[in-house]
Amino acid sequence: MTTFAKISQVAHYVPAQVIENDDLAQLMDTSDEWIASRTGIRRRHITKDEETSDLAAQVATQLLQKSGTAPETIDFIIVATITPDSAMPSTAARVQAKIGATQAFAYDLVAACSGFVFALSTAEKLIASGRYQKGLVIGAETLSKTLDWSDRSTAVLFGDGAGGVLLEATDQPHFLGEIHRTDGSRGTDLQSGVLGLSSPFSEAGEDAPYLKMEGRSIFEFAIRDVTKTLDDLLASQGLTDEDVDYYLLHQANRRILEKMAKKLRSDIRKFPANMAEYGNTSAASIPILLSECVEQGKIFLDGSQTLVLSGFGGGLTWGAILLTL
Ligand code: ACO
């Protein structure tokens, strides 16, 4: 029998502390009006004492509880993150320990805002191989620790949070198509966590830990390259916009979603958005949105809807998955 993968449960978790645009205006020369009108962001959740693995473990625990799954039956855990607790152990290994998934192998996947989509694609192949039955795929970030809080052009855009899915083996196809892309030649348009060389045997390198972004160039990249990829993905399956119930896109900027919807000749109501509440949470944004849409009764886990999930950002990376849920 051929094995396929299916998203059988979704969950999200964000830190309790809420920072409003007006709170940021106390720290830097900005305003609620500027931030909200340029981005659609009104507030973000910022961690006080929880690390990325704490957020991810909360999601993992919810996934297990909601689905009645025993932790020792999980075969693998992939955490997509650019803000791990540490390079080693990985955030996924920490989650594995925290939830007692004793039989699971676990690793992090680093692809910025495309991280969740790339991780989901990888996990789908693991399940479809027939070797593994259950996996957790989580996007989790504490971007607040990588921001330069004196730089108003980036600090206002991002937030912390985590979301994820339980992926299980099934006998019906749910993943219908995908396109994943990377253009490393444009990588410096968006970067963070640069650790310079520092051994006694090397020339001294320069550290650049904080997130830096060429905002306008990333904006144009999203409208041009990502929209083309969404078009190509639908065409590759002989589908059109009419066949898609919802586009769950990375939540960077409300204006990006509006421009993409227009270019795709689609209805903006098919593009759920929650950046007003969370800002850009990088790898966590798509699973947080998916989990909220399920909670709100907009999206069902019964295989009746066709969705496009698409992430885009640092790398530059971008990717899209067409699936029924
Ligand atoms: N408050 C007030 N003014 C500001 C702020 C702020 N927070 N930030 C910038 N400005 C000013 C600038 O200094 C500039 O002033 P000037 O004209 O006097 O020089 C003016 O506002 C316009 O700045 P722009 O950068 O041109 O503003 P723009 O309209 O392009 O919006 C933004 C900037 C919101 C960042 C937009 O370019 C954007 O959303 N880009 C895409 C971001 C994105 O998609 N990221 C996804 C990937 S993230 C990841 O992968 C981790």
Automatic annotation (TrEMBL):
Any single Pfam family the record assigns to this protein: ACP_syn_III
Active site: 113, 250, 280
EC number(s) given by UniProt: 2.3.1.180
Segments forming a coiled coil: none
InterPro entries: ACP_syn_III_C (IPR013747), ACP_syn_III_N (IPR013751), FabH (IPR004655), Thiolase-like (IPR016039)
Annotated region described as ACP-binding, given as residue ranges: 251-255
Keyword Zinc-finger appears in the UniProt entry: no
Positions of the Beta-ketoacyl-[acyl-carrier-protein] synthase III C-terminal domain: 234-324
Similarity comment: Belongs to the thiolase-like superfamily. FabH family.
HAMAP family: FabH
Assembly, per entry: Homodimer.
Name this protein carries in UniProt: Beta-ketoacyl-[acyl-carrier-protein] synthase III
Source organism of this protein record: Streptococcus cuniculi
Name of the gene: fabH
